[in-house]
C-alpha cells in the first residue's frame, strides 16, 4: 500500500470550515536532535562526524479547519544524515478533541527526505494531554523506520511496527518562563531487533522563555542512552533555539 498517497487522500477528504485558520513558525537551533539522535552527522565526503553545534533552520505551518478539530500541517528542517539528502519535510494531519477532561490528538505523519527516499517513514500517532502533561505514542506503518534496515530492507527485514512512546511535561515556573522535560522510548520491530538494532531511551530537559510578540527562546540538554551501540549520535548536547510564531 502507498501510505503517502493514502495520507494525501485523507487530507483532501477533510471538511472545510469558514473559520479556518492558518498559522506559521520559523526558528533557528544550534543543533537538531530527533528522538535524542543528531540529525547532522555526515561530512562533505560522506564520512561520519561529531560536532557540538550543527545549526539548523526550521519552520512550517498549521491549518486548522475552524472548530471541527481537524488540522493539517507541514514542518521542515535542514538535516544531513543520509547521502544525497539535506532536508527533512514533514507532512501531517489529524483530529483534536476533548473527552473525560483530557485533550486528545489522533493523526498521521509522513517524514520525507528528498534525494534519498530510504529514510522516508510514515507513522500513526495518538496523544492525550492533561494540564501540562502529555503522553504520546507513534506507530510505524511504512515498510522501514528511517532507513534502519539499510541494505537489508529488500530482504524482508522491516521497520514496520516500530513504536515510540514519549512523556512530556511543561510547567510554568515563573512569568513567561516554562520548564520543559521529556522522556521517550523507541521500541524497534522484531526484524530490526533481530538485526541487532537496540531499543533506547531519549531525554530532554530545558526551559523556554516567552519574549512576547510570538517570539520565544529555549535552552536545554537533549540526548539518549545506548551510546556504546549508536556512538556520538546519542551524545547529550546543549541546545539553544529561537522561534517566531507568524
First-residue to last-residue Cα separation: 37 Å
Number of helices: 3
Largest sheet: 12 strands, antiparallel, barrel
Beta-strand percentage? over 45%
- Give the name of the CATH superfamily: monomeric porin ompg
Order of helices and strands: HEEEEEEEEEEEHEEHE
Under CATH, the topology can be stated as Porin
Based on CA atoms alone, the radius of gyration comes out at 18 Å
**What's the β-strand tally?**
14
Percent range of helical residues:
under 10%
Q: For the residues shown, what is the average pLDDT?
A: 91
The secondary structure category is: mainly beta
Structure notes:
The chain starts with a helix and ends with a strand. A hairpin with a 5-residue loop joins strand 4 and strand 5 (70-78). It has one domain: Beta Barrel (Porin). The strands form 2 sheets. It has a 12-stranded antiparallel barrel with strand order 1-4-5-6-7-8-9-10-11-12-13-14. 8% of the residues lie in helices and 52% in strands. The radius of gyration is 18 Å and the shape is globular. With 246 residues, the protein is mainly β. The protein has 3 helices and 14 strands. The model has no long low-confidence stretch (mean pLDDT 91).
Amino acid at each position: 500500500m502507498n501510505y503517502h498517497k493514502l495520507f494525501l487522500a485523507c487530507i483532501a477528504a477533510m471538511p472545510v470550515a469558514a473559520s479556518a485558520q492558518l498559522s506559521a513558525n520559523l526558528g533557528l537551533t544550534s543543533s537538531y536532535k530527533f528522538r535524542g539522535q543528531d540529525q547532522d552527522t555526515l561530512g562533505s565526503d560522506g564520512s561520519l562526524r561529531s560536532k557540538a553545534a550543527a545549526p539548523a533552520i526550521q519552520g512550517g505551518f498549521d491549518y486548522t479547519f475552524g472548530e471541527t478539530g481537524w488540522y493539517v500541517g507541514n514542518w521542515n528542517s535542514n538535516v544531513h544524515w543520509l547521502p544525497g539528502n539535506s532536508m527533512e519535510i514533514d507532512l501531517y494531519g489529524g483530529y483534536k478533541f476533548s473527552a473525560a477532561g483530557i485533550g486528545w490528538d489522533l493523526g498521521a505523519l509522513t517524514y520525507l527526505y528528498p534525494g534519498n527516499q530510504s529514510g522516508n517513514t510514515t507513522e500513526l500517532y495518538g496523544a492525550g494531554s492533561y494540564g501540562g502533561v502529555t503522553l504520546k505514542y507513534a506507530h510505524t506503518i511504512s515498510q522501514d523506520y528511517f532507513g534502519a534496515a539499510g541494505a537489508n530492507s529488500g530482504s524482508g527485514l522491516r521497520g514496520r511496527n516500530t513504536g515510540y512512546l514519549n512523556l512530556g511535561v511543561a510547567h510554568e515556573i515563573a512569568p513567561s518562563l516554562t520548564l520543559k522535560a521529556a522522556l521517550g522510548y523507541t521500541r524497534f520491530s522484531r526484524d530490526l531487533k533481530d538485526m541487532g538494532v537496540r531499543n533506547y531511551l531519549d531525554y530532554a530537559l530545558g526551559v523556554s522563555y516567552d519574549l512576547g510578540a510570538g517570539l520565544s527562546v529555549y535552552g536545554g540538554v537533549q540526548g539518549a542512552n545506548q551510546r556504546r551501540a549508536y556512538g556520538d549520535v546519542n551524545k547529550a548536547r546543549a541546545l539553544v533555539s529561537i522561534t517566531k510564531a507568524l
